[in-house]
Design a protein that fits this description.
It contains 13 helices and 12 strands. The protein has 338 residues and is an alpha/beta fold. The strands form 2 sheets. Strands 1, 2, 3, 4, 6, 7, 8, 11 and 12 form a 9-stranded mixed beta sheet that branches. A 3-stranded mixed beta sheet has the order 5-9-10.
Amino acid sequence: MTKLQLPKILALVVALGLSASASAQMMINGAGATFPYPIYSKWFDEYAKVDPSVRFNYQSIGSGGGQKQILAQTVDFGASDGPMSDENLSKAPGKILHIPTVAGAVVISYNLDGNPALKLDGETIADVFLGKIKKWNDPKIAASNSGANLPDKEIVVVHRSDGSGTTFIFTDYLSKISPEWKSKVGTNTSVNWPAGIGGKGNEGVSGQVKQTPGALGYVELIYAIQNKMPYADVKNAAGQFVKPTIESVTAAFGTANIPDDFRFSMTNAPGNDAYPIAGATWLLVYEQQKDAAKGKKLVEFLKWALTKGEGMAKDLNYAPLPGDLQQRVLKRIDEIKS
């Protein structure tokens, strides 16, 4: 063997070794909510350091898509910010578990000159999205914002165009505070919007609001922060105008009545400190896993996410699970069979 041949052989051995390690890596596929995408991305990146044998491929397509794909079994887990309905669960080929992960705030973001700090109550928000309040200087908006420079300008309403858990949280809130909204539009991941233009995902709505003067839309808090967009304080059930923060979402979380199946709502929560448009997000997994090896790895990841992963929530402006709920969820994860 010549000295020239040796490096080539070594390079081939290294390449074969890398190829073998890549092929040995297990891919776990998921799809769904855009609301928790920033923290799920962080979790998947960090978990690759904990267990390099597994990789996660997550498609941020909206909660409606996540529910459809877990029902069709085209993914290993779904993700949704709205719990699945009894009707949808009945279509599943096996029992689907709801695993709550974190909670977050849906904020009312807007694009106005000077970025005024606005306060909005639920009825006013409902009337904007019903198309009844059309201009920024409407008396109902002005009533809560004395001294703010509100222009005589059309409000461009922006909403989601896809099936969305963020929409579920938002419409769940509007249905609780506006009888007209409840009867005409209702609560769902996708609704017939009375007014406005659509954007796909939290990313799409953020982009539309940011580039459209006079726009107003609803997005998850982290998207407003990352895009440096202003967002309103919202009047809660106790009559207080509250900023959307980790603390005000945690206050809402603390009042939620959480049943055994973990399907619950925390919008319009009681208490002086609770932010009213807050919601949890869930991972959706089959209790009986078809692939034993993948099921084992998925359970290991879920246990890590609900313990170590929860510690990363606040850095991304999500509220982690309260301790008692965390313990209940960990017990549920133990029920997953492969």
